[in-house]
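Run folding on both entries below.
>entry_1
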Amino acid sequence: MGDRVHIKICWSRALLTGWVLLLVQLQHLQAVPIGIDKTKVKETEKKPDEPPASVDTGLHYDRYLREVIDFLEKDQHFREKLHNTDMEDIKQGKLAQELDFVSHHVRTKLDELKRQEVNRLRTLIKAKHDLEGGNDIAVDHQALLKQFEHLNHRNPHTFEVEDLDRLIKSATNDLENFDKERHEEFKRYEMMKEHDRQEHLKTLDEEQRKKEEEHYEEMKKKHADHPKVNHPGSQNQLKEVWEEADGLDPEDFDPKTFFNLHDTNGDGFFDEQELEALFTKELEKIYDPTNEEDDMVEMEEERLRMREHVMNEVDSNKDRLVSLDEFLVATKKKEFLEPDSWETLEQNQAYTDEEMREFEEHLAQQEQDLNQRTVDLQKQREELERQQEQLNAQKVELQQAVEHMERLKSEKVDPPPEVHVEGNTVPEVHAADNQLHPDQDAHPPGHQETPQHHQDTPQEHHEQHNQDLPQQEQPQAHHDELPNQQDVAQGLHNLA
């Protein structure tokens, strides 16, 4: 090349591509000038020191990863070591040892970032534990601890060499498995879609079922009826992009020019997102969001399959980046010039019959567990309602007992009724009291006969009776019903 290409690996670039700690801080490639039709190609203006835009990695610790990258980039010693460290040394943790030599200011900020990350994870895990534990669901503690694999949680206060080493290894491993997890999610999506279709057919009568099956087969044929799909990354596929997207003459196709046109951030690499953008024209041949037969979830899976294929064919050092040199080498291979036909998703079922059978069994078990849970909850509800009824009954009984005690207390507190006769107080005497039972002793209780019998005067007898007669509670008498003096005296005389 004319001018020497100066490459500084930038960490934020690695966020897009998977090798997380290849800190790419590239000076833009100064490639040999190539003749380009300036009337059709418009160069994008960029600030010299502007870092490439980053895309979310999808990792649950993405923000923490970015912040660590940003601050490590600010340390001159670390940047120099990074410039002289190759991919394998980074993956094996040799770069992490250089953390001991970064500035105090950077280390202090990394300590703060780690404490914030530990607190964030603890809060999230506690919330998940409370949610699942509160529903009587067994908590997977191993899965919770896995959330901390990218840092040393036993030391939640300071950012050490082990933390950087863990961050590198965790991000590398997680990003390598990211595509695998996406494929598994798509497989479950396809199996669930087929399961729902079969369940719907069970609800139809024979005639309706036949019409539904015919409609399904018709949609499959319409989806499969599309223009030829070029092999991803082949000369034919790239030329089509060159002509239709770039507006250039296919006879003037030049791989180096093509690379520079579609290296949208100008860092000298094709990352995964830049590669996937190249397949848009091919995907539009198969999928149209306005068509009933086209599933946009399947379109994204097809895009992923195309990108993975190109990476496997072109990315020789497996760093999830396609350099200009790797790209130019690939354009000279037979597979680039004479590719095999590309088999789309409709030609490759996402799951096997055995996987579908296991999926159905799993759904059946989930439904059974859900039904059992429903029964248990209903029993719990009935038991709670029964206990509530008992509590209500006890409450009523307690209220009645309180009212009864209050009534008794009120009756005992009321003073006995009294009548006044010529200044003397005597209990009220009812007419019924004048009638003595034949067998009843005529003398009042406590009265003893004396050998000498004398006739008391009515007044003396009245006074004596007041002293001997015990106090009894009597209902209050109205003044207009009080007996006269003669009647009272006569009544007392009869009692004597």
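>entry_2
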Amino acid sequence: MCEMVLVDIGHSNCPQDGCLQKHLKDMSAMIDDGAYSHIYIMIDRDSGTEKNHVQTTSTLLESFAGQKEKIHILDEGCVASSWYCFKQAVDELDLSAVLVVTSSQRRNMLQTYQSLLFTAVYSFEYAALFDDSKCLNSSSHLRKNIREEVKTFLQSLPAVTGEISILRSSFISDSFSHGFTTRTGGISYVSTLRSLNLFSSSRRRDPNVVVEENLRRLGLQAGFDPKNFHLIKTDHASDVWVIGKPEPPSYDGMVTNREGLVIAAPGADCMPLLFTDPVAKVIGVAHAGWKGTLKGVAVEMVNAMVSEFGSNPSDVVVVIGPSVGPCCFTLDRDSAEKYYAIHPDCVKARGSPRPYVDIRLATRILLQQAGILPHCIQDNTVMERPLFTLCTACSPDAFFSHVRDGINFGTQIGFLWIKNQCVSG
């Protein structure tokens, strides 16, 4: 059953006498059964004069007088901003089922906005109460580039919290550009996604267009073009994509020697790993959660750099980004025992039902076994330099965390690229 109603008054400038009053009467009758506690009415100011707008508002309030306490008017100046304001209301109430009451002519246009600004978390029903094909202004938005309108609107929004802050490691050579993001400086407003969330999925409330805007802002700050950006398609396994070969449907690592190509790994407790070889000019990124660590994704990264590009493991530098620490991460006994087999120090409180597990230490040990020199790995054990591999679950102001925030968690990333080499003539 729908929990909220969005009434679209975008046809309000119809030149036919009595058209608006009739449509409003029909809409009011439809939602006057008391089943809806939240009714939002959207006025499209783009399609008419200020005089028409004032008349529409007055008629609107008269028509819905019986539901006055439930009514909220969306008078935001454009359809994109009204839809966004409505989405904020839905999210604040933690609801998901919406009924949209509109005209037959505007239904497709509104569905386009919906598809851009909402994810599969939400469900929509549409009720087209009348055919407004004779209304001169009814299809004006259908001729616009709606996606560009939405993107332009999102670009105008201020950051929800703070400024973009990027963590960088002194371990990585100046031949490369890199960074790990924190959670500030973006436009995502849902509490567990606030504010620089960099991943959208069908199970979360941030749509792709919001993540794209967050990425655009990150690119401006970090100095890369989002068009050159590639994010790992995680599967919590150990497959590595050698860029240039056919791209697999999912993978948890990428390696390349192409200059200017920005590669990135997500993380929200899972480890974003950055690999650089300043001798062979090769880079790689990996996403390593507890499953991927056991499956050997870090070792597979080293193997790919060696076999595909001739890297020597002793030249490779690995930086382990912000991730859940052994202070906050537990596993069931059987899974913890697999970490104990890597090294006993990887497991604390071994006899408890859910022992604490150190996935970072396990990664360091596996990397060293693959030939990476101990002093070429940066993690939380490196004490002579500023602490870099911070615990995501312990730092709610700085990082997203699945362990802490649950299923609708946000995502930060580690990103890396090879700088373009200028050749003097």
